[in-house]
Amino acid sequence: MKIYLDGKFVAAADAKISVFDHGLLYGDGIFEGIRLYQGNVFRLEEHLERLWYSAKAILLNIPISRPEMAAAVCEACRQNGLRDGYIRLLVTRGIGDLGLSPWLCPKPSVVIIADKIVLYPPEYYLTGLSIATVPTRRVGPAAVPPMIKSLNYLNNILAKIEARQAGALEAIMLNEAGFVAECTGDNIFIVHKGRLLTPASQQGALKGITRETIFSIAQQLGIPLEEHELTRYDLWNADECFLTGTGAEVIPVVKLDGREIGDGKPGPVTGRVLTEFRQRVLTEGTRI
Ligand code: PMP
Predict the structure, then answer these.
(1) Cα of 163 to ligand 1 centre, how many Å?
(2) Which is the catalytic residue, given 149, 207, 255, 265?
(3) Is 0.85 topped by the overall pTM?
(4) What is the dihedral sign for C-alpha 99, 102, 108, 112?
């Protein structure tokens, strides 16, 4: 496997980052997870836009231009002979000293890994997931804006551990006010009386690229969609529920906190959305 590291492609065994990199010492950095479908980098420009927004938010200067980054992502896929896969793109603060000070890190590092990912066992895409609400709250916008896709995922990892302890593969995270924010690595949608509802990013949700794709699909299919405050009660009484994310794609949820959602089977609206999503991933984006 060839890894892009600061302008060069190197063998995986040689793709090394310093122990003084603040990405490692403090989780100081940002990333994107991007999918490649049959030679199409799905919504690459949208991912790069979000990366640049994250960088702005944490005052990080990405050392290459956006077109250079786009070219490097495509080249990483080609170098590894991939037609389908998952790309992890990260920008770390770079090498500094043992203090926090980001201004002592003169040069951010850029890493691109083009590989494969399987987030959930394939059968769950047909039968649906069983998930659980966990005690750990989503970090609020006043602490770290959830729109920043930062390298520090400890908040989400704690929630993931708690989901596993509850016998579930994924967790619902609430915000400080007790409203539904998102899952540990996915956004959440419910269907209620024919309407699609999802929490606004102000509630603690990442502005997911897959989530935005669902907005566009809903418009095309004529399904009303709203960003809405959601409680656990709303989720328990939803007709359908599904999660979205680059890794997860679109996956139905059939059980939450021991309650069946709807009739306990993936629902028809989820099915329609999923069918359209499968079409779009092949056409929306950048050919490698
Ligand atoms: N929320 C969180 C916390 C995430 O890490 C992700 C990405 N895995 C998402 C939502 C979904 O975002 P996207 O559709 O852009 O992958």
Answers:
(1) 17
(2) 149
(3) yes
(4) positive
Assign domain 2-115 one CATH number from 3.30.870.10, 3.40.50.720, 3.40.50.150, 3.30.470.10: 3.30.470.10
What CATH architecture does domain 124-283 belong to? Alpha-Beta Barrel (3.20)
Tell how far the Cα of 39 is from the centroid of ligand 1, in angstroms: 22
**Residue type at 23 in one-letter notation:** G
| C-alpha dihedral (88, 90, 95, 96), degrees to nearest 10 | -130
Is ligand 1 within 6 A of the CB of residue 204?
A: no
Ligand 1 centre distance from Cα of residue 104 (Å): 30
Would you say the CB of residue 211 lies under 6 angstroms from ligand 1?
A: yes
Domain boundaries, the chain: 2-115, 124-283
Whether residue 149 lies in the annotated active site: yes
Q: What is the rounded distance in angstroms from the CA atom of residue 98 to the CA atom of residue 216?
A: 45
pLDDT in tens, the chain (288 residues): 999 999 999 999 999 999 999 999 999 999 999 999 999 999 999 999 999 999 999 999 999 999 999 999 999 999 999 999 999 999 999 999 999 999 999 999 999 999 999 989 999 999 999 999 999 999 999 999 999 999 999 999 999 999 999 999 999 999 999 999 999 999 999 999 999 999 999 999 999 999 999 999 999 999 999 999 999 999 999 999 999 999 999 999 999 999 999 999 999 999 999 999 999 999 999 999
